[in-house]
Automatic annotation (TrEMBL):
SUPFAM superfamilies, A to Z: L domain-like (SSF52058)
Organism: Pomacea canaliculata
Entry's transmembrane regions: none
Region of interest (Disordered), residue spans: 1-32, 258-278
Protein name according to UniProt: U2A'/phosphoprotein 32 family A C-terminal domain-containing protein
Matches recorded under InterPro entries: LRR_dom_sf
Length: 278
């Protein structure tokens, strides 16, 4: 104990030479000992420091790619564009915003020509891959803008719309779509699906589908894989048999290949049980 006390008085670490002595009465310690110098915030002279300069990119934080003065990027080249709207101040100063070289950021196109310029650069009509996940569509502008874009996707083969709180897509048509991801939305029925005559892969995990109404509309499609786990309908007795009975051409359900048992007739519908409370 005395040796340990003297060691502490000298400011040495328990991992000093004395700590590694061998013997039956010596206790070894492997805990590291570190001295950290504490600076009081009252002695901080940060108020005398120069302010942190703003990044040059700050002027572009609310700009859309088709707003930029010099831009040749098309929507079909973007992997996962975000649908967002800047503050009102951005719209007011649209034609006045400049970069660090005092050059104007945005183009000088006005009126309908501005919308035409936007549509030409977006070029969603020729996009074969479109991904709009997790858009947080709480603002009316964002919802209407997504609808505008979806209405133009006439050649898309791969479409990702997961995590968007979507409730109804029945008004849209994707004639070339082969892969459609609708996971984590609020769809309550297969009748809310868009028209997808060429779909081969459809995933609808974690929606709110409660029955099989409308599933037969997919019978005329070349659908091979379907994912429905996380929907109330997936908890019904005979769930797999019912799906394969409606879609005999389906090969995989929830990632599992069609089994011999899946070809058996589904069990009869159960009448909901009830009780009388007097």
């Amino acid at each position: 104990m005395a040796d340990n006390a003297r060691s502490s008085d000298k400011g040495t670490s328990p991992q000093s030479e004395d700590a590694y002595e061998s013997g039956p009465n010596v206790t070894h310690s492997s805990i590291p000992f570190t001295v950290v110098q504490f600076r009081s915030p009252h002695n901080d002279s940060s108020e005398h420091r120069d302010p942190i300069p703003q990044l040059p990119s700050r002027n572009f934080q609310f700009s859309l790619w088709h707003d930029l003065k010099e831009c040749d990027v098309h929507g079909s080249q973007l992997k996962a564009p975000r649908i967002r709207r800047g503050p009102a101040e951005k719209d007011k100063a649209f034609y006045l915003m400049t970069d660090e070289k005092n050059s104007r950021i945005h183009h000088d196109i006005h009126g309908r020509h501005k919308d035409t310029h936007r549509d030409n650069l977006e070029s969603w009509e020729v996009a074969q891959l479109a991904s709009f996940p997790s858009q947080d569509l709480h603002h009316g502008y964002q919802k209407s803008n997504l609808s505008r874009i979806l209405g133009r996707l006439k050649q898309v083969t791969y479409l990702n719309l997961r995590d968007n709180a979507l409730v109804d897509l029945s008004s849209f048509t994707f004639p070339c779509c082969e892969y459609l991801n609708l996971n984590n939305n609020f769809l309550t029925s297969f009748k809310k699906l868009p028209k997808i005559s060429r779909v081969k892969y459809l995933t609808m995990l974690d929606n709110d589908i409660t029955n099989f109404n409308g599933l037969s509309d997919l019978r005329s499609t070349p659908l091979e894989e379907l994912f429905l786990l996380g929907n109330p309908v997936a908890f019904q007795i005979g769930y797999r048999q019912r799906v394969f009975a409606i879609l005999p051409g389906l090969k995989f359900l929830d990632g599992v290949a069609k089994q011999d048992e899946d070809s058996k007739p589904p069990p009869p519908d159960e009448k909901p049980s009830s009780c009388v409370v007097s």
